[in-house]
Amino acid sequence: MIAAKTLKLNGKDVPIGDERNLLELARKAGIDIPTFCYHSELSIYGACRLCLVEIEGRGIVASCSVLPEPGMVVRTHTEEIREMRKEAAAKGVATVIWSYPRGEAISKDGETAIDIAAYAAQIAALLGAHVIKIKLSTDHLELPAAKSVYEEQQIDIATQAARVKHCMDSAFAGRRIMVFSGGAKKGADGVFDDARAIRDGGGNGSIIGRNSFQRSREDALAMLAKLVEIYKGKA
Ligand code: FES
Asked: How far apart are CA 26 and CA 19, in angstroms?
């Protein structure tokens, strides 16, 4: 008897049939991977990167564009997140997703590009996050296909407040709580400007880490007090 060709998907051996890509194989195995640009009857476009999975030794790839090969070890983090979400819901705990795009599929600038940040927000919402945490973005557009849509639709991404609003719109039209982190340690004025942009764009708050604990206690408390005033619209 000839042994069936298999690959490992989220730790389970899954037989490979006539599937044209990892996405089809995962769906046959009952794992739902979100997609945007994929249609089974059309040629593969592979542009949206919504269907990312991890292949051991190869990194993060678009599952709709990769042929299943025997011996592959594939992990879909979406499934992992769903399981964790189920567990959290069973205990009455809210799900917070830190949606930080990383990996070889995007450039360094792409990690904070507005098209990628907006996708990150949308994916987190689709995965069931109650609270989404993303990074503040730049006006860089990573994907050529996205660039033409942003230009055609004249989506305003010129200011940080406009980009915050766009990210909020991308997560069920602002119906999810979204907080933003600013990244590198910066001067207090930079932190305050970020907070005003988040407030004006309709965001729900700043995540402050190193910008408080890398300051003296007095400075950190004064900074946090001013941030509260900014979110109250008083500063
Ligand atoms: S669904 Fe768009 S890249 Fe796979």
From this structure: 10
Burial 44-77, CB ≥16 within 10 A → b, else e: bebbbbbbbbbbeeeebbbbbbbebeeebebbbe
CB 93 within 8 A of CB 110: no
Pocket of ligand 1 (CB under 6 A): 35-38, 46-51, 62, 64
- 55-66 tens-digit pLDDT: 888 877 889 999
* pLDDT attached to residue 148: 92
CA–centroid distance, residue 183 to ligand 1 (Å): 28
On whether both 68 and 150 belong to a single domain, the answer is no
Q: Residue 32's domain spans which residues?
A: 6-75
CA of 175 to the centre of ligand 1 (A): 25
- Tokens representing 197? 């942009």
Atom from ligand 1 closest to the CA of residue 34:
1
| pLDDT of 23 higher than 90 | yes
What CATH number corresponds to the domain at position 16? 3.10.20.740
Q: Which residues, including other chains, have CB under 8 Å from residue 37's CB and lie 6 or more apart?
A: 45, 46, 47, 48, 50, 64, 145
Going by alpha carbons, the residue nearest to atom 3 of ligand 1 is: 46
